[in-house]
Design brief:
The chain is an all-alpha fold. The protein has one domain: Growth Hormone, Chain: A (Up-down Bundle). Helix content is about 80%, strand content about 0%. It is built from 18 helices and no strands. Helix 1 (about 1-15) packs antiparallel against helix 5. The chain starts with a helix and ends in a 19-residue tail after the last helix. It comes from Alkalicoccobacillus gibsonii. It is found in: Cell membrane. InterPro entries: Atg22-like, ATG22/LtaA_families, MFS_dom, MFS_trans_sf. It is a multi-pass membrane protein. This is MFS transporter.
């Protein structure tokens, strides 16, 4: 849970809040229109997620060998932390360089998360997975709020000339704060979390990993419940991720000033923490699937409301709606999936989970970007995402309730 606390600073400051505002301001200073800067950010997110989606199952299959999960996790973690700190040295108006470095940070962040998510099977049992996964997200929202508040304080102080800094320099300091926070609070994860479930090392591990991956691709059709869930997840999580990543960009397009956006996003983190934990508790009472439907329903309302947004007040309301469900829907998706997979091949199967999640994250930003450019309206782009939630919800209806038995293995899920 401390790693959720650590890396969530990146999710808010780099993915959602300060970096998108910083990038859009720099791009517009370089002569890029507001709509195009939003579209370019969407295309960049799509490229980064495509790269990681292609790598995840291969790396995950290799990382299932004894002792390798932690090493792969550490490798991507270091890429993420170092490249995030480097954002501070890129010139403000070098928008293309910023996007390239942002792509590298995204790969490091999301790559580490593939292996971090797979550690869920090593640290708890199936009865506690929903609650623990949700608690992790809850801790993450609080952990991200603290450095985010510090960054807002520095930026506002620079804006009001309480500090001898430009707003640009204050924003760049926030990137360094993010990297330091992420790095320091990841130490307990690196030191103490161990890989419990694994495949024994063997000769020619890379070759055999590719063979095992190929066999899994052939066999995965046997997991009917798993495949239906992944297909539903592919659509609805795409909408969730796109709204999170593009929120400040279309908030800026609505004319909401940077200070208001930062305050809105800060309070979103505070509200999201207890709701993420609440989702985990309610899942134990009403099942994870029912709570996933609650989350999908909230996001459908978000898409409809977004189409009619005209003011900062509307954006406040929308942000609070998102806060009630963004952590819960992600946490329960992670734990639902973890219950279905063989534990000794968790990295391999979370690689597939990542494929569905990341390829979905290619489609959503592209849908938003293309719609925004065609219509000339960012709010119409957000409204187009309703299609993803509807399709995901319909497919989820065909996912039967699962009977998860003790242990792991191919026959653990009955359909």
């Amino acid at each position: 849970m401390l790693y959720d606390w650590a890396n969530s600073a990146y999710s808010v400051i780099i993915t959602t809040a300060i970096f998108p505002i910083f990038f859009k301001a720099g791009a517009e200073a370089a002569g890029v229109s507001s709509v195009n800067s939003t579209a370019y950010l969407g295309y960049t997110i799509a490229i980064a997620t495509f790269i990681l989606a292609m790598l995840s199952p291969i790396l995950g299959t290799i990382a299932d060998y004894e002792g390798l999960k932690k090493k792969f996790f550490a490798f991507f973690f270091l890429i993420g932390v170092i490249s995030t700190a480097m954002l501070a040295v890129v010139p403000f108006d070098s928008w293309l360089a910023l996007l390239i470095l942002y792509t590298i940070t995204s790969i490091g962040f999301a790559g580490a998360n593939v292996f971090y998510d797979a550690f869920l099977v090593d640290v708890t049992d199936e009865e506690k997975m929903d609650d623990l996964s949700a608690r992790g997200y809850g801790w993450g929202y609080i952990g991200s709020a603290i450095p985010f508040f510090l960054c807002i304080l520095i930026i506002l102080s620079a804006q009001m000339e309480f500090l001898p800094l430009s707003v640009t320099a204050a924003s760049q300091i926030s990137f360094v704060i993010t990297a330091v926070w992420w790095g320091v609070f990841s130490i307990p994860m690196l030191r103490h979390v161990k890989q419990v479930h694994f495949i024994k090392r063997e000769s020619k591990p890379v070759v055999k990993s590719f063979k095992r991956l190929g066999q899994t691709i052939k066999d995965i059709r046997q997991y009917k419940t798993l495949m239906l869930f992944l297909l539903a997840y592919f659509f609805y999580i795409d909408g969730v991720g796109t709204i999170i990543k593009m929120s400040t960009a279309y908030g800026t397009d609505l004319g909401i000033d940077a200070t208001s956006l930062l305050l809105i996003l800060f309070l979103t983190q505070i509200v999201a923490a207890p709701f993420a934990i609440l989702y985990g508790r309610l899942a134990q009472r009403f099942t994870g699937k029912k709570m996933l439907y609650v989350g999908i329903g909230v996001y459908i309302i978000v898409c409809i409301y977004a189409y009619f947004m005209k003011s900062a007040v509307d954006f406040w309301i929308l942000a609070m709606l998102v806060a009630t469900s963004q952590g819960g829907i992600q946490a329960l998706s992670r734990s639902y999936y973890a219950k279905l997979i063989p534990k000794d091949r968790a990295n391999e199967f979370f690689g597939f989970y990542n494929i569905f999640g990341k390829f979905a994250a290619v489609m959503g930003p592209l849908l938003l970007a293309v719609t925004a450019q065609i219509t000339g309206s960012s709010t119409t782009g957000v409204f187009s995402l309703i299609l993803l939630f509807i399709i995901g919800g319909v497919i989820l209806a065909f996912v039967p309730e699962t009977d998860v038995s003790e242990g792991s293995g191919r026959n653990k899920v009955t359909v």
